[in-house]
Amino acid sequence: MLVVDAHMHVWEHLDGIVFGTMRTSKSRYGKVTYTGADAKSDIARWMPPSFADSAAPAEMFLGYMEWAGVDKAVLLQGPVYGSQNAYYADLRQRYPDKFIFSYAFVDPRDPQRAIKDLEVAVKVYHLNGVKFEPPHTPFWLDDPAVIPLWDKIAELGIVAAVDLGWHPERTYHMQNDRFEKIVARYPGTPFVLLHLGGSDLGNLEQQYPFPALQRTLGLRKYPNLYFEIGGLVSVCEHDEYPYTRVQEIVRAAWEAVGADRLFWGSDWPYAEQMCTYPQNVNVIRKFCDFLPEADKQKILGGTAMAFYGKRGQEK
Ligand SMILES: [Zn+2]
User: Fold this and answer.
1) Above pLDDT 70, what percent of the chain?
2) What's the rounded mean pLDDT across residues 102-118?
3) pTM given for the model
4) From the CA of 230, how far away is ligand 1's center (Å)?
5) What is the reported pLDDT for 168?
6) Pairing between strand 31-35 and 43-45?
7) Bridge partner residues of 191 (DSSP)
8) Cα 188 vs. chain centroid, distance in angstroms?
9) Is 226 strand, coil or helix?
10) Element (H or E) spanning 161, and its range?
11) Is 66 exposed, middle or buried, given 0-12, 13-18 or 19+ CB atoms closer than 10 A?
């Protein structure tokens, strides 16, 4: 079975931004230092202590892939790591068979500069999409100031992935209605909703069929939108492998969307805190018995390969 990890991160340097005001830098033994006005605790754990120098290079991840029987991966960025555009361009050159698609990072808080950075990322670095995470680079997805950036994304014909955050009580998180406006406005742009849109899934009062998730899954009416189930182990921390709650969430998503617009990702290395990388993939591969075998293959790799494979080769 072809397995594609459609959500993972590696970094060559760590100099990112958290919730708009805090900067990140490497500490040791899986921890990261936060500095800035709102840095309440100056150090945060992102990974297990075995990440001795808090680094996550591509070659390390390739070892994890081999260990877990994962064939290919999609390079995703995030504001918390800082831009890896040059690094990801290099990785696509060095490991074209392993990394099938690379997302760019641009900072939408300065839309004019973001447009220039995106042109470089796509035309010079040959990255294939762009990812936004509004909670960390605070902006409203439908702000008139960022419409020229969305126009540029449409003009370039690239994929846009969005992480809406996990905390419904916080500003700039869970901008579902604004996200819908953008998806509807650009029917020619392929969108990926990461982590199933967050959908308050960490709230244990929400049980199958997960009413908040059902509202998010209503966005399936837009055929240009794909759904990704990456990192769900992170909101089911109370649980243990094989994560019954993750399986129920996958079931709800699959029942609503089907397997042709749904794909798995690990959220490595952050998710290493919850379970091992083989366990992360085996929640689907060895469990989720409700899935017909053909649909399981699609969710674990077939759909991501169909969606990303060809787009990742366009220059
Ligand atoms: Zn992630």
Assistant:
1) 98
2) 98
3) 0.97
4) 8
5) 83
6) antiparallel
7) 160, 225
8) 21
9) strand
10) strand 159-162
11) exposed
Question: What is the token pair recorded at 281?
Answer: 């993939």
User: Whole-angstrom Cα distance, residue 144 to residue 116?
Assistant: 18
Number of domains present in the structure of the chain: 1
Q: What average pLDDT is seen over the chain? A: 96
Q: pLDDT tens-digit profile of 82-102?
A: 999 999 999 999 999 999 999
Q: How far apart are CA 272 and CA 136, in angstroms?
A: 22
Q: Please give the distance, rounded to the nearest whole angstrom, from the Cα atom of residue 25 to the centre of ligand 1.
A: 17
Count other C-beta atoms under 10 Å from residue 251's C-beta. Answer: 17
Spacing, Cα 269 to ligand 1 middle (Å): 9
Question: Residue 268's closest CA among 277, 260, 259?
Answer: 277
Give CA–CA dist 107/138, Å, rounded. Answer: 9
- Ligand 1: distance of its center to the CA of 307 in Å? 19
- List, for residues 260-270, the tens digit of each pLDDT value: 999 999 999 99
Query: Ligand 1 mean position to 270 CA, how many Å?
Result: 7
Question: Is residue 99 assigned to a domain?
Answer: yes
- Domain residue limits at 265: 4-12+55-313
Query: Residues with Cβ within 5 Å of ion ligand 1?
Result: 267
Q: What's the CATH code of the domain at 90? A: 3.20.20.140
